[in-house]
């Protein structure tokens, strides 16, 4: 079965984390059951107690497998979130978890932005007792619009270690920094503006000690399928795009009507593509182009880069990407989740291969001012999705409140209004 981004599925009653085991596995090795007690499933977490908030006005106290060893393999964690008056939990993603949030006190304006090309904002004002769901891997936020009263929420997350990537921190506060040349083109601003933003060194949104326990484990091997593709239970399940039945992916076409053409497309991936104003073009071949890919958990893309062109910072909420350079040179990198936001970058030459883990912000940039570059990327989903950070944050429809973004990026509302007024072009075709 596929196991792209979910937690290991329990194969016994429990697998309490043995944090002292020298064995490295996905999650933690199991403590010998004869040493397990009720305390391994318990923590006096005091989630009823208000927390001190940081300068963006929030504090997330996460209780995951690091705090409760009995959560290992069980695919869930919980958090208390405190918001000051006008405080926010700024735009971020959870690369390995869907979040379901319940308001305990006060009012929250919340929302998430869908992936390219629509970048639709789904937002709602929540009152005490209301519940809202943020799908796995999508950029989302919460904001307390009340200038006088704090707010409190409880969030459950569908992973023992969901990870968090605060957009401003990861993009402008990575260590080492992403090239200002890359970011200036991606966000359509001058390098001086990028240098100023990077100099702010935004602090992680979670100020509590428990936030320091947010690790960046990449759950790439397990038996569940929370964010991965449906697993094939027969030789193939060719997508029936005309079926009225709604399923995860597509219903299966009757096998007696299947032909070799359902597994084929004359995609001309050897042919150069015209690039857009940021200097790239992604030609994706997924289940929409080849119906036979349904349930098979893979797709492929050709990426063209103009001289000094880039595939700007983005994520794939449902896929790991493995990229091979066919022509030219690429400077590539990805940024880990909070609190470290470490940049792993490399210069690739023709024939080199690089992996971008599922859900993490990554980019490719052609540093050559005279020669184009070409790459082929395979992605571990029939429909990997793409979220271009600048487009989703500043080009959502309707726009995210400029008050939310001004606080998140530590700039004036005028700067946010200017960024939202730009035309955010899609490079996926």
Automatic annotation (TrEMBL):
InterPro entries named in the record: Cupin_1, Germin, Germin_Mn-BS, RmlC-like_jellyroll, RmlC_Cupin_sf
Any GO MF annotation of the entry: manganese ion binding
Swiss-Prot/TrEMBL keywords: Apoplast, Disulfide bond, Manganese, Metal-binding, Secreted, Signal
Disulfide bonding pattern of the chain: 237-252
UniProt source species: Oryza meridionalis
Residue numbers binding Mn(2+): 314, 316, 321, 362
Protein name: Cupin type-1 domain-containing protein
Quaternary structure and interacting proteins, as annotated: Oligomer (believed to be a pentamer but probably hexamer).
Residue ranges of every copy of the Cupin type-1 domain listed in the record: 45-195, 267-417
PROSITE patterns referenced in this protein's UniProt entry, alphabetically: GERMIN (PS00725)
Principal cellular location given in the protein's record: secreted
